[in-house]
């Protein structure tokens, strides 16, 4: 009969306990690895989603930038076209006014008076003194000088044109072209954005030659500059004076329209 080992059951119990603990640790390690892999996988998915969202946003931004560039190019082209058309319109307007000026001058310029020479009576006594004669002007030279100033205005050489018109007016104060010179002098100053000089020149036309064909338009130009200078009250007074003095003129029609506003 074999003798029993008193400590054997205890040893077996300890062995079983250690085995159970080892199994739990193995299961715990396995669980930790799976959880880590799952979290890593989740992070990878979220990162990809973020990358996709960022890529889409960048693509949309790039498309928007390109669209803005295209729109800017289109608008730049429109601005260049409008600028060209504006310059062309200004040139046509100047040509129209110059042509109209030429037509009006043909109507306004009187025919040169004929001077019949009287025979000298040798038997009559000669006058003791002769009144000083005024030097006759040269209409052809005046016309050439005036046309030269007008051509400067037509070529949009505004400063040169203003100087030429002013020089003409001073050199030929009694010429039939002087009212026209002052009128175009005012227009040149207006194109140079100098309304005060414009008003001065146009007022000379109205003050010295109130019956001249350009007087109504000169008065209308005065009202325009007064309005641009912020003097609405004076502009209205000028327009009312225009209607009273020149009711049948085309400038009066424009004045009526302005007074309605």
In short:
This protein has helices at 8-108, 139-154, 158-171, 178-191, 195-208, 215-228, 232-245, 250-260.
Q: How would you describe this protein?
A:
The chain has 261 residues and is mostly helical. The chain has two domains: 14-94; 139-260, Serine Threonine Protein Phosphatase 5, Tetratricopeptide repeat (Alpha Horseshoe), CATH 1.25.40. The protein has helices at residues 8-108, 139-154, 158-171, 178-191, 195-208, 215-228, 232-245, 250-260. Helix 4 (178-191) packs parallel to helix 6. The longest helix is centred in the N-terminal third of the chain and has 101 residues, at 8-108. The chain starts with 7 loop residues before the first helix and ends with a helix. The relative contact order is 0.05. Residues 110-124 and 126-135 have low confidence and may be disordered.
């Amino acid at each position: 009969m074999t003798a029993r080992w008193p400590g054997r059951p205890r040893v077996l119990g300890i062995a079983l306990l250690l085995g159970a603990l080892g199994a739990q640790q193995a299961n715990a390690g396995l669980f930790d690895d799976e959880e880590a892999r799952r979290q890593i996988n989740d992070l990878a998915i979220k990162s990809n989603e973020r990358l996709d969202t960022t890529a889409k946003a960048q693509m949309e931004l790039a498309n928007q930038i390109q669209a803005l560039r295209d729109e800017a190019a289109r608008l730049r082209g429109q601005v260049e076209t409008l600028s060209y058309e504006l310059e062309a319109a200004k040139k046509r307007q100047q040509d129209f006014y110059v042509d109209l000026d030429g037509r009006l001058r043909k109507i306004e310029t009187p025919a040169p008076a004929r001077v019949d020479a009287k025979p000298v009576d040798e038997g009559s006594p000669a006058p003791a003194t002769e009144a000083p004669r005024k030097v006759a002007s040269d209409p052809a030279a005046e016309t050439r000088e005036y046309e030269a100033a007008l051509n400067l205005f037509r070529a949009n050489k505004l400063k040169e044109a203003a100087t030429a018109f002013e020089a003409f007016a001073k050199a030929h104060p009694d010429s039939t072209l002087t009212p026209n010179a002052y009128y175009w002098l005012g227009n040149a100053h207006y194109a140079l954005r100098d309304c005060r000089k414009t008003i001065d020149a146009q007022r000379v036309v109205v003050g010295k030659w109130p019956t001249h064909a350009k007087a109504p338009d000169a008065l209308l130009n005065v009202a325009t500059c007064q309005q641009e200078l912020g003097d609405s009250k004076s502009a209205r007074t000028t327009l009312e004076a225009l209607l009273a003095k020149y009711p049948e003129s085309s400038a009066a029609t424009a004045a009526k329209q302005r007074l309605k506003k």
